[in-house]
TrEMBL record, chain A:
Stated family: Belongs to the transketolase family.
Protein name, per record: Transketolase
UniProt-listed SMART domains: Transket_pyr
Transmembrane segments: none
Xref: InterPro entries: PDH/Transketolase, THDP-binding, Transketo_C/PFOR_II, Transketolase-like_Pyr-bd, Transketolase_C
UniProt keywords, alphabetically: Thiamine pyrophosphate
Gene3D superfamilies per record: 3.40.50.920, 3.40.50.970
Species name: Arcicella aurantiaca
Automatic annotation (TrEMBL), chain B:
Species this protein is from: Arcicella aurantiaca
InterPro entries linked to this entry: THDP-binding, Transketolase_N
Protein name: Transketolase
Classification of source organism: Bacteria, Pseudomonadati, Bacteroidota, Cytophagia, Cytophagales
SUPFAM superfamilies assigned: Thiamin diphosphate-binding fold (THDP-binding)
Superkingdom: Bacteria
Ranges where the Transketolase N-terminal domain occurs: 18-255
Length: 334, 268
């Protein structure tokens, strides 16, 4: 199994520091969120490169847009639940429509805040942000993808949303036999015998496990349970599942989806998002409109009053676990 | 520009605002006429911005928060040479970039606005960037009185004074009417000056339809070192056309042929 690394949020903070150290135009904007964004050390090391707006998310995004328009590379950091709901109009108009190259960073996303409840969950963000023109939407799965997403977002010079959770994630899902003892940041220099198709590129899904019997397409923190489901299916049933980290939800990698769908095998999407309007419906839309009729299942959080509990408990309740995903796979294969 | 030259500019701008609204059969007539003297003074006297330096990082910035009064902005930008005035013949036409709110598809426009309460936060970010880069450019926004209740404005008021943005100036086009009626009846925002002062802004009040007085006020920027500047520009909705002045129906009323001729004759 993959080596446990850091929370993607911690990778974000470390990567932002490495960027800021060599470029004084790297600016973090926070809404009393530097602690939850793991940016307290960043603020201490780079006091001139952090702007605090207080708990005022609309202003956070507007200020970020203004800074970006004046040439700054801006990371607007706030809990995903507030950033993408309270400040949605600022994201739509001030960032996307006005084409200000802000990197919107939604922290503690999905149900990361667990028992804090629905006010603190972001299960709507893919849906609303997918419906906004000129905005890239990304949820990295592991530490490697996170680091790469941040570096590429900083270089993109276009509006982009990055979504991170709080839970420790694998260092790199592709290198499942990672031998390093202490979890550490990967550098992006891939020296392992890894094919270039597994490298990270915005807008290109990453195949993290090969398999020919069916495919799991996950995003963000649901790629890990999809991977676990694939391992379980292999060991217990001899079934080989392909696992894709569809880190970029918009623009979606239609080429890869087409290749997978053309194999004619079942497809299961898994996301930490309401089943309405997220990754699953985006994939379904492509499949239906392109004459693919694979067996298909969208796994995510249903349209109901979300069960209370920790992130793990919520995942378990809705069967976003290795076991639950494997069970759905067996149903589709039956 | 001299006082007489500025007055003459305002007269010509008012005629053009009416001309293009009349041709497009759409526009925010009353508000464009109330704020045009402010735009006139900003672009012809106060600000260092023109088509030649518009791509320069050192230019002064103007972001119109009350985006719906775009006709006033377009008329001034055309006069300054940002685009040929003939482009305005396409105002609100199919596939034209000259739509009912400012967009960056039009040369000279800094930000896409139209949803209210958005201009000032963007200005705060832009003014902050100037401070970080130790640049001397200034940032201006035009607020409508009807958009003052937007919470995002008050978030931005707080942050502008917190960061001591004396390179930022917000001008309130205070014509005291909004689409439903008088501001005071819709949602009272007074006492505005006291509120802004308590939020840490330096405040001046001026006749916003008197170009000379506006110029004299804006010449004093920043009003106080270390504080953002707020100008309460007392204006008249529909200013310059007798039958439109202070008449709510001209918020986005479009004149008939007879009304248009009468308005133009009053502005001759």
């Amino acid at each position: 199994m993959p080596t446990v690394g850091l929370a993607n949020l911690e990778v974000f903070a470390a990567t932002l520091e490495s960027l800021a150290a060599v470029d004084r135009n790297i600016i973090a904007v926070t809404s009393d969120s530097r602690g939850s964004g793991k940016l307290t050390p960043f603020g201490q090391k780079f006091p001139k490169q952090i702007v605090e707006v207080g708990i005022a998310e609309q202003n956070l995004v507007g200020v970020a847009a203004g800074l970006a328009s004046a040439g700054k590379t801006v990371f607007a950091v706030s809990p995903a639940c507030f950033l993408t709901a309270r400040a949605l109009e600022q994201i739509k108009n001030d960032v996307a429509y006005s084409d200000n190259a802000v990197v919107l960073v939604g922290i503690s996303a999905g149900v990361s805040y667990g028992a804090l409840g629905t006010t603190h969950h972001s299960l709507h963000d893919y849906a609303v942000l997918r419906a906004i023109n000129n905005l890239v939407v990304v949820a990295p799965a592991d530490n490697f993808e996170t680091e790469q997403a941040i570096l590429q977002a900083a270089a993109l010079k276009k509006p982009i949303y990055l979504r991170f959770g709080k839970k420790n994630m694998p260092v790199d899902l592709v290198i499942s036999d990672w031998s390093g003892g202490v979890p550490q940041l990967v550098t992006g220099e891939k020296t392992d015998n890894q094919s270039t198709s597994n490298l990270f590129q915005l807008g290109k899904g990453r195949v993290i496990r090969e398999g020919s019997d069916l495919t799991f397409i996950g995003t963000g923190e649901t790629v890990l349970p999809a991977f676990e489901a694939a391992e379980k299916l292999a060991s217990e049933h001899g079934i080989q599942a392909k696992v894709v980290s569809m880190h970029t939800i918009k623009p979606l990698d239609y080429e890869l989806i087409n290749t997978i769908a053309s194999e004619g095998k079942p497809i299961i999407t898994v996301e930490e998002h309401m089943v309405n309007g997220g990754l699953g419906e985006a994939v379904a839309s492509y499949l239906m409109q392109n004459a693919h009729r694979n067996s298909f299942k969208i796994m995510g959080i249903p349209d109901e009053y979300t069960v209370t509990g920790s992130q793990n408990e919520i995942f378990k309740h809705y069967e976003i676990t290795g076991e639950g995903i494997a069970k759905e796979a067996l149903k589709l294969l039956a | 520009m001299t006082s007489i030259e500025l007055q003459e500019k305002s007269r010509i701008y008012r005629r053009k605002i009416l001309e293009y609204i009349y041709k497009a059969k759409a526009g925010h007539t009353g508000g464009s006429l109330s704020c045009i003297d402010i735009l006139n003074v900003l672009y012809n006297d106060t600000m260092n911005v023109n088509p030649e330096n518009f791509k320069s990082g050192d230019r002064d910035r103007y972001i119109q928060s009350k985006g719906h009064c775009v006709e006033a902005l377009f008329v001034v930008l055309a006069d300054k040479g940002f685009f040929p005035e003939t482009d305005l013949e396409t105002l609100c036409k199919y596939k034209s970039h000259y739509i009912g709110h400012p967009t960056r598809k039009v040369n000279g426009v800094e930000q896409n606005t139209g949803a209210l309460g958005h201009g000032l936060p963007i200005c705060v970010g832009t003014a902050l960037a100037a401070k970080m880069d130790e640049k001397s450019y200034r940032v201006f926004t035009l607020l409508g009185d009807g958009e003052l209740p937007e919470g995002s404005n008050w978030e931005a008021f707080l942050s502008a004074s917190h960061y001591k943005l004396d390179n930022l100036c917000a001008i309130l086009d205070y014509n005291k009417l909004q689409i439903t009626g008088k501001n005071a009846d819709v949602l009272n925002t007074e006492p505005i000056a006291d509120k802004l002062k308590s939020f840490g802004w330096a405040v001046r009040e001026v006749d916003g339809n008197d170009p000379q007085k506006l110029k004299e006020t804006l010449d004093q920027l920043p009003f106080e070192e270390g504080k953002p500047s707020f100008v309460i520009a007392h204006t008249i909705k529909g200013k310059g056309v007798s039958y439109m002045e202070n008449q709510l129906k001209w918020h986005h009323g479009v004149p008939s042929a007879e009304q248009y001729e009468l308005a133009i004759s009053e502005l001759s």
